[in-house]
Write a structure and sequence with these properties.
heterodimer; A: mainly alpha; Helix Hairpins; elongated; B: Four Helix Bundle (Hemerythrin (Met), subunit A)
C-alpha cells in the first residue's frame, strides 16, 4: 500500500490551494469566493491527513475533523451575512459593495 | 500488480479532484461550479480512503459533500434570480491573479519535490473509529466541547441573521 509517495498528495493539495486562491482573487460573485475558500480548507485538510497517515495518535485526523466542523460553521455564517447583503444591495456581486469607497 | 492498481486509483481520484476545479476556474455558471465542487470533494474523500484515513473520508462525505454543498446551493438559489440561461458571474483581475497563483504553485511544487519527504514506515492504525473517539473524549476534550458550543452558537446566529425582519 505504500506505492504512492507522500509528495503526490502534497502536489494535489498545493494545486487545490492555488486554485482556491485564484478563485478568491478573480471571481466577482461572493458565493464563488466561498467556494474558493472551501477548496483552500480542503487543501489544508489533505495535508494534515497525509502527514498523519502513520501517526499512531491520529492527531492530524482529529485536527482535520475539527477544521471541517469550523468550515461548516463558517459557511453557515457567511451565507447568512450574504443573504443580508443581498437584501440590502439587491446584488451578490462583490464589486457592488462599494458604499465605503470614495 | 497491487502497486500499479494503487497508482491507477490515485491518478484517477487525483484527476477527479483536479479537473472539476479547473472547470470552476473557467466557467461563469455558479450552479455548475457548485456541482463541480461536489465532484471535487468526492475525489478528496477518495484520496482520504487511499491514505487509509477512513474516519476523515466519512466526515468529508457527510459534512462537505452533504451539508456544505446544500448550504451553498441554498445560498445561490436565495441570492440570485434563476433565469433560463442559468446564473452567471464574471471575472476580474484575471492576469494578475493567474500570475500570482501560478507563481505560488510553481514555488510550492518545487519545494515539495525537492524536500524528499516520505511516509514513515510505521503501520497505519487499523481501528480508527475507536482511536478517534477515544482521542476526542480524552486528549482533546476541551477543544471538543468548545467546538460543540461554537457550532451551536454559529448555527443559531446564522438562523437569526438570515431571518426576515426589519430590525435584523
Amino acid at each position: 500500500m505504500t506505492a504512492i509517495p507522500l509528495t503526490y498528495y502534497l502536489v494535489v493539495a498545493a494545486f487545490l490551494l492555488c486554485a482556491g486562491l485564484l478563485i478568491v482573487l478573480t471571481k466577482k460573485n461572493a458565493i464563488m469566493v466561498l467556494i474558493g475558500i472551501e477548496l483552500m480548507l480542503n487543501a489544508a485538510n489533505l495535508n494534515l491527513v497525509a502527514f498523519s497517515r502513520n501517526d499512531p495518535q491520529l492527531n492530524g485526523q482529529v485536527f482535520a475533523i475539527f477544521s471541517v466542523v469550523l468550515a461548516a460553521a463558517e459557511v453557515a455564517i457567511a451565507l447568512a451575512i450574504l443573504l443580508n447583503i443581498y437584501r440590502k444591495y439587491n446584488s451578490s456581486d462583490l464589486d457592488d459593495l462599494n458604499t465605503l469607497e470614495h | 500488480m497491487t502497486m500499479a492498481i494503487n497508482k491507477l486509483f490515485f491518478f484517477f481520484f487525483a484527476a477527479m479532484t483536479v479537473l472539476p476545479v479547473i472547470y470552476i476556474l473557467f466557467t461563469g455558471n455558479i450552479v455548475r461550479s457548485a456541482f463541480a465542487l461536489v465532484v471535487s470533494l468526492l475525489g478528496v474523500a477518495a484520496l482520504y480512503v487511499l491514505l487509509q484515513a477512513e474516519v476523515m473520508a466519512v466526515v468529508q462525505l457527510l459534512i462537505y459533500a452533504g451539508g456544505i454543498i446544500v448550504l451553498l446551493l441554498f445560498g445561490i438559489m436565495l441570492t440570485r434570480r434563476l433565469s433560463e440561461e442559468g446564473v452567471f458571474a464574471g471575472h476580474r483581475g484575471v492576469v494578475i491573479g493567474a500570475l500570482m497563483a501560478l507563481m505560488l504553485f510553481g514555488m510550492l511544487v518545487r519545494l515539495i519535490l525537492g524536500s524528499g519527504l516520505e511516509f514513515e514506515t510505521a503501520a497505519p492504525v487499523t481501528d480508527q473509529v475507536a482511536h478517534v473517539g477515544i482521542a476526542f473524549l480524552t486528549d482533546h476534550i476541551v477543544a471538543f466541547e468548545l467546538v460543540a458550543y461554537l457550532l451551536l452558537v454559529a448555527l443559531v446566529g446564522a438562523a437569526f441573521l438570515a431571518k426576515k425582519s426589519d430590525k435584523a
